[in-house]
Amino acid sequence: MGIGPYPQLDRLLKSGGLNSDANNQNPTSELSSEIVTSKRYIWGTTLVVAEASKMFEDFLLNFTMADRIRAMREEDSTVSIEIRPEHEQPYYFPRILKEMNELKIYNLNLNCQNLKSYKKSLPLYHQLIRYPQEIIPIMDHVLTEKLAENSDDYTPVHALVRPYNIGKSVNMRDLNPSDIDQLVTIKGLLIRVTPVIPDLQTAFFCCSNCDYSMTVDIDRGKIAEPTKCPNDACRASNSMRLIHNRCIYSDKQIWRLQETPDEVPDGQTPHSVSLCCYEDLVDTAKPGDRLEITGVFRAIPVRVNPRQHTIKQLFKTYVDIVHVKHSSNKRISIDENLIGENEAIVQHDEEDNLKFINEEEEKNLINLSQSPDIYERLASSLAPSIFGMEDVKKGVLLQLFGGVNRFTGENGSPRIRGDINVLIVGDPGVSKSQLLQYVHKIAPRGIYTSGKGSSAVGLTASVTRDPETRQLVLESGALVLSDGGVCCIDEFDKMSDSTRSILHEVMEQQTVSIAKAGIITTLNARTSILACANPIDSKYNEKLTIVQNINLPPTLMSRFDLLYLILDKPNEFDDRKLAQHIVNLYINRDANNFGNDIIPVEIFSKYISYARNHIQPVINDEAAEKLVKNYSELRQSNSISNRHGEQKTVAATTRQLESMIRLSEAHARMRFSNTVEVGDVDEAYRLIRTAMQSSAIDPVTGRIDMDLINTGFSSRRRSQNAHIQKQLLEVINSVDKPSIRLSELHRIFNSDSSEPISDIEFTRMLDNLADDGEILFDKRSQLIRKLIR
Amino acid sequence: MTIENFISNPLNEIEKLIGNLSVNDINSFKEPNISEIFKNKFSNINDIKKIPLLNKSTFNSINSGTLVRYQCMIQDNGIDSELYSLFHLVKDKKTNEKKVKFFKYQDQINENDYEYLESEKVQTFRDRQLVYCINIPGHNSWAKEKSTVQSLDNKNYKIINEKFPIESEDNFGAIVKIYDLEDANDLKLNAVFEFIGILEYSEHNPTIEQSYDDLDMNLLSSYPLPHVHAIYWNKIENNSNPIINNIKNQLVNDQDIKNMRNEIVEYISNRFGGDELIAEYLLYNLVSRIYSRIDSLPVGKFSLNICNIKSTEQATEIYKLIQNIVSKSHYLTLEHKKLNNKRLAPSMNCIESIEQGIGLVSGELQLSDGTVLVVDETTMQEGKIDNTGVVNISILSDLFQNQKITYDFNYHTLDFPADINLIVLSEAKSKLFPCDCIIPLQNSANINQDTSVNEDLLNKIRGFIDIMKVSDYKIDQEMANNISKEFVEKRAEQSKGKQDYSKKILGQDDLLYQLNLARLYTLSHGQTQLTDEFWTNTKEFEEKREKRLNDYLRYKSKNNINSTQQPLR
């Protein structure tokens, strides 16, 4: 006994219609596999039953995957999926039908895109969307027949077709009267499930006088209660009693689906919608699941009072579910490679993945990735309200893209992480926290936590007893929740040592092991960590070495791919820019003074998800060579310790090589390139070096040369430097003295030039000029001499 | 005369506009723009005032079907939209005539006069949005529009306590039904509106039948709550202060403004025993608001911590003073029992029942923009704070830092931006809540209430604050350049000479704070443009405050040493 959401129509089709009913003047359908003599329309529609069933039969027998691919190509010429011979095989017949018979599963998940791309069934697709209540039973009927034909042992079954992927999904806020009785797809979060409700299908009545019994089927949600005993001998009125335990019921459940947070407009509370599901679908989802529901939007009138048939002008709305899809693995766009270890993907999902994002969006993203300054643009779009810190932003940007996760393949060997960890150590008041807040907002599965208020269990997982069931349950902590995303930890230095020590495992093995209260398990925590800390005395102390200042155990420190030192060092040039930036917040109210190049947050996060899911860059030979060379260079420059054997700079280990690989991969990913080239490696190397300010460390003392710190240095300016350098040379040559003091020259230059230049840059340019042999630059006396030619 | 008809029986007027319809007219029916017609009818402010105001005290005397004005805050806009049919066939019981009835702005018909008929033929589906509105939380009594009608007979309706942020005698909630869906997106959570609409309620609402087949999870609309069918609405700006226009007229020339400001500072400082500095900073706080938001950074927030408060009595005295001069304020106490039991931030309840609240359950922090929230730390006692308490404290401190409140929707949370003027009253410097500005009360200070209440002066203060709060503000380019120059020089100076690592050098936050202070200083002087004079004065005040704070901290630490040494002796 199969009961779909439309039992009355089901039966109408199966029993051959209601033609015998004299009161019913509607042309109803009689469906048999024999030749249909005259066109029969379903009442109120333009549907011809016979045509629809023929179309569906044809589709079932002849549709091939090749049709789908061809249709996709027609729509979008950039699709480059090859048609392989196996694609030319009919898709549903006989393979899937056979499987259904063997497995005794009589539900067919029908991907509507297949229906749409098969030319001959295109009208059926449109009819399905418009008249699902009529078409779906027809489809069920055809499928049942086909199954019966192909089955050896004929047992009457009722197969159900469950259409999904209808091509567009509506926001539940936008469901409106025009959607009534149409097939719709809505996405949302399941928040509530009722207990299973027995839904009366067939009522059994018995006469209390003569024990004559009869059954009455439900018709349009109503049971017509017999007022008289149909037994000719009895004819007693009002004698029929309902016998509960002989009635036939079906399972029914009411769900409540709520809007997902990303779809809620500003200043609105999430809306929700009621769903009805029947039979097989009951209990297929639990509260908290993200679902994509395909179903029929229905409205039922409210009665004036429960005992009357007259209705009011009010209606209750709900969706009759025909298909449920768990969309949890797609929602936050975790690296798809990650799935597969211990998560199962439903097989029929794969074909959806042929097309995932809307094509136009995809094209825009690809166009965006082609722009030459995409790296700079993305970096400056990251937390645009924070001024400067370009290299930090770049590092964090690459962290968001991440490297490639690798499974070495052999059994038991661990995967190699592609996640990049970043630590920012800085003076107070350099807007570290603000950066973290921003990343937390934009990152997929971003979690924000503060070291001060976090406990070890809060980060990993705790075992608690459920107050209702008294069972032990695991509650995931921040690191587990951010699996596949970014975990932002503020005030890293304020964290207790024991808490910090659990990070060792997370940051390299990317798992969290728990052994508590009889629960021994390992949870995945494949997360990138972005942490912030203050130096040991809360302000960077120049008298101490860099390692002493950071004061983190080297075991932990080496697990960070990038370690940024942000020092609040007054510097006229940057300070002025900063001040202007801040004052501007008060001058322009709408404060869109970040420039037009800023990529909006929504596009930004889409860009990142797309890159993470679709670009898997591979390192080419030259890049590999370059990596080796850079690594040995890095290792040499860092192998300095004083005579007490105390380390003064951060040591380079093989971890740094891995970091470099990850960063190069992330950089390639960022520009949507499938190969890692030398340019990517160069940038990765530069980032690693600038990230410790390692170029500014005095190798003898291990201290940072404060004058060389340039946190606000703009790399866009770097490209303009050649031009400015030329101007500078002209200025020097125009001076009528043979030599000039640095400060004086700087003043003259800045007063002439349209854009002032910072001290460091200025010195750097002079260095360059001296290297080129254009001038003599004596650093000790701060004198610049002209070359006499 | 017609105005009165429109007020007393608007449905009748609407019916006249629609005219008599027959079943065949339905397809070609063109709906007149009813809200436009009503707007035009009530274009005159005096006519609007004739529409009765809907609130708890007037509700009992207003008949169902009357046009009302409902000033309220949107408490919950997550209620399902409702589907209805624009027309329905009814039978007039007196004449036995069949009639097509127009069902916009109306849910119920008088069952003595009419009877519902089967009317599938005329079904025309429309949807409407439902929002649940409550009286403006923290609305101080002086700022409320006075309504004269009072009556004592009680009507049967429900107050769902969970849907009100603050317990109050005046709590009154109603469902507002919105028909113009294009504009419905403006109806943001916690915004304050005046709806003009038709009141409808029924005393004998059908009891809610909890049947198994209950699809109607839209429980709110099935409770016996008053409904308002909104015809049109206006957003209430300016903190719903009724006297603002009078004051505006008084603020014409500079001298007037100056005088008025002096009066205000004098008034406030007198309450603090002549402490002008506190008066200044309190005034800055009251005229502050979130000016713009960049990313998540709220520009313009100015949270104030008044410390060195000796007792809760002193704190309540300060609150009384504030309550008297701002239109919306709330006094938040921090007893640990309360913190542990009730959530401060609103949250969604999945299991809907009348006991636990329906839909979005309110919390004390669900306040409309511009409300002054006074947090009294002196009410904290010794005790243990549990899970809920910790969440509450962290939500509150998030409000201080980012001016946003995280609402819990069970399986996820959503951040709602807030714009609340925050004042913390504490004994020592507040450690729980990071404030932008800390100022200690003078040791000798006595808070004294206004003995001779001068309504006129109070009104001036009230109006002045609300006007300046929303005024525009400019910095010209030259001023901006000077400020940046000064900042650069100061930093350069600090980095020169001996470097003291324990001392923090001037940073981004300091500049932001100074600029904000300058803005508030300027606005509190009734001006909209920053001048050199204002900039220097701001710095002077700031120096005074810092000195007082440092003195206080030094005094405090000295006392602490003494007190710890005593047991040794």
From TrEMBL, chain A:
Catalysed reactions, semicolon-separated: ATP + H2O = ADP + phosphate + H(+)
Main EC class the enzyme belongs to: hydrolase
Transmembrane annotation, as ranges: none
Keywords: ATP-binding, DNA replication, DNA-binding, Helicase, Hydrolase, Nucleotide-binding, Nucleus
Keyword Nucleus carried by entry: yes
Subcellular location as annotated: Nucleus
Main localization category: nucleus
MCM C-terminal AAA(+) ATPase domain boundaries: 374-582
A biological-process GO annotation: pre-replicative complex assembly involved in nuclear cell cycle DNA replication
Family membership: Belongs to the MCM family.
This protein's name: DNA replication licensing factor MCM4
Originating organism: Anaeromyces robustus
UniProtKB/TrEMBL annotation, chain B:
Keywords: Nucleus
Key word Nucleus present: yes
A Pfam short name: MCM_bind
Biological processes per GO annotation: DNA-templated DNA replication
Keyword Nucleus: yes
Record's subcellular location: Nucleus
InterPro entries: MCM_complex-bd
PANTHER family the UniProt entry points to: MINI-CHROMOSOME MAINTENANCE COMPLEX-BINDING PROTEIN
Protein name: Mini-chromosome maintenance complex-binding protein
Organism expressing this protein natively: Anaeromyces robustus
Lineage: Eukaryota, Fungi, Fungi incertae sedis, Chytridiomycota, Chytridiomycota incertae sedis
